[in-house]
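Why does this matter for the project? Reviewers at the last site visit asked to see concrete outputs rather than summary tables. In response, this paragraph embeds two records directly. Each consists of the residue sequence and, immediately after it, the corresponding structure tokens. Nothing has been edited or filtered.
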Amino acid sequence: MNGFVGVIEQKIMPLANKIGSQRHMTAIRKGIIATMPLTIVGSFFTILLNIPIESVAAIIEPYREVLDIPFRYTVGILALYATFGIASSLAKSYKLDSLTAGILALMAFLVTAAPPLRVFKDVENIVAAGRYMNIANLGSGSLFGSIVTAIISVEIYRLFIVKNITIKMPEGVPPEVSNSFIALIPGAAILILFWVIRHMLGFDINGFLSQILMPLKDVLAGNSLFGGLLTVFLICFFWVLGIHGPAIMGPVIRPFWDMSIAENMDAFQNNVSAFDMPNIFTEQFLQWFIWIGGAGTTLALVVLMMFSKSEYLKSLGRLSFLPGIFNINEPVIFGAPIVMNPVLGIPFIVAPLITTTISYFLTITGVVPMMVARLGFAMPSPIAAWMSTNWSVPAAILVIFNFVLTLGIYYPFFKVFEKQQLQKEHEEKQAEAATK
């Protein structure tokens, strides 16, 4: 066992930490996470428009088109915000002007993803003649294009800065003015490059990336049970190694997650039933049905600890209960610990795999609907599942069922661990008594 732990510490952890801290991966993670407040706000409007009370729905109905606008300008143009966030984050890591980098990346993304549509004649009571931009091209479907566009734009901007191919202003000129002139040449290069690629050569970056990556998205964040189980296993496995699972997996899977929930929200806004959404394995599916109390469904373990015979485990359980209700479980992961602990590490991995399988089959058989909203992670799971599935009571009941089932899975392992802890406490008391 010690040899296995040594291999993990010497080989796996350095590699995992290196991947997690890689400059571009970090920028992608930070840029996409920065859009979370907007998607959460957009989700509340989705929920508001679908309150299952007839009297309330009747009041809302005349204002439905107006109330839909916040959703369209949050979730509906998710990739636009992600472009700026990724570019500015990457620029900061290079110690470049993040505002300029973000603006240049936005320009490149719009040139690439949203070619203007020209209407030559007025269409009475529908649209006036002019040029228009389809905001559907700026949504979750263009997220991978936004990532690539942002990274390429910043790298071009950086290349011109490093090679000193810029217009310099005299000393004493305000920095914001100086930065604007510095960006002129790299900005022109970025604009021409993406304009030529998209409009002269006719190469659609977003369409190309979608064709390449969509099969992977369908596996990791679509409707594949294998992909869902693989994701759950890897996140839990990294946690057992002492590595923040979502931080390692985030740069790879978060774009898929964000795309999946955005697709579901958009379909739901277009009157598709919550039982017929495009994607089962959204982040919210895991967050509310599986991660009850945090990754590994540790709220069950915390409850067992609260009634432990061990003084230490009982104290840790009581201290961890309130954070656990709001899905914060670092106290128990590192306090028990679960990290590098095979006794608790086994149920930490196995329990979520079982509840994922059960939740998947209950979803595909129509017992519970799919996720149609994105709420903040620090919400009690039964309430969040109820709200996120279009007010589905069976979804809330499923959370409670999974929690009780997880209690049963953790229990025998917990009793073994408790026995070890009690023995340790007994030995410590004996040693303390001997010193007196």
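We now turn to the second protein, recorded in exactly the same manner.
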Amino acid sequence: MSKIDGKILVLDDDQGVLYTAKMILKQHFETVVTEKDPLKLDFLLNQDKYDVIVLDMNFSYGLTSGKEGIKLLRKVLEKDPSAHVLMNTAYGDIDIAVEAMKEGAVDFLVKPWQKEKLLATVKAIYDLSQTRKQLEDVKASQKIVVQDQQREFNDIISVSSAMKPVFDAIDKVAATDANVLILGENGTGKELIARAIHNKSPRVDENFIKVDLGAITESLFESELFGHVKGAFTDARENRPGRFEMANKGTLFLDEIGNLSLSMQAKLLTTIQFKQVTRVGSNKALPLDTRLVCATNMPLYEMVADKEFRQDLLYRINTVEIKLPPLRDRVEDIEPLARHFLKMYGKKYKKEKMRLNETTLTKLKAYSWPGNVRELQHAIERAIIMSNSHLLAPEDFLLVERPDQNIIATDSFNMEDMEKQAIQNAIRNADGNLTKAAKALGLGRSTLYRKMEKYKL
């Protein structure tokens, strides 16, 4: 018979009770800790988290009031309000039982007990503790999933032949469990592609969880992705599942994966390789069945050559690669996209009569859109907000195509402005070769990419 993967703590001043309880419970639970000295309770609670705590009511010789047990119960619940405590006493005083239950005990057991009674009660409380944990996990997951799903996402809009390979790849890969790497510039719609893969897959009824790795600090990386148990660190006030757990049976979308440091890459690789996750502060590995879709605007293969991205991690995440073309290479899509955003923001700002004239469309098609679809979306929104007419004219769009349009004025002595200008000049002098530009600046290439992201270059 396999044992239950649970941890039970028995605290009692009677060595015989401790021995008997351990003999009975050890046959059914993986970990059973017994302790006679109540002064060691703090140490035990700091060392581990227990599914069930069996706590004696009286420790001092001759005392039968149960006040010692009540005091210890309060200490347990102060340290861990979610603790499941079974009170244990040789005196069947109903008043003690009522007080213990009012203070937060789950149940009350009177000694001497039969072994079947002890086992049944501990098992019942263990099951209750697991149910409550699962409920906490579900609530935490639902909160993040709901927040994620409240964002507005639309179907991919395209009539361009440049997008046909992308749609073909989506159709082929969606039905599989293969990991997918989406490559493309900022604003090209990588998340929409990830969602399309999920929505066409057998996992469509499960969670789609997104993680923006560029926004997660190294100190929070493990907690966010792998979860944590209560007390694992200072701010860990409750158990929390990580994004991998939330996406179990579904799809996990890791955006901006090129921003990960080498140490973070190593931790991610271990999880992907062994298909299991361990929460921070726990030693229990949880099996995973998660579809992984990653995305980046960084040149991962060049980063591998420069030892800034792990080759073994790249091979794990790029079973299938999808390269998303920039908007300048799919000019046919500019008009349908513009009309879509016009309708969307016209409704949002109660300007449903807004229209685009042909001259305006010609100007939009002639622009290179360095910010891709996202820049077009923001340009349409701004034009709708600022225009006084129902017809959007070319002058409603501040799109000035200049080779040096991003250059910062040389008379600025702001450190960030000067750094941005230095990066722009280095890239220009290197004819767009980022390896040469990084070398000229005295930076690693991944550092250069992060700074380019920071300054929207």
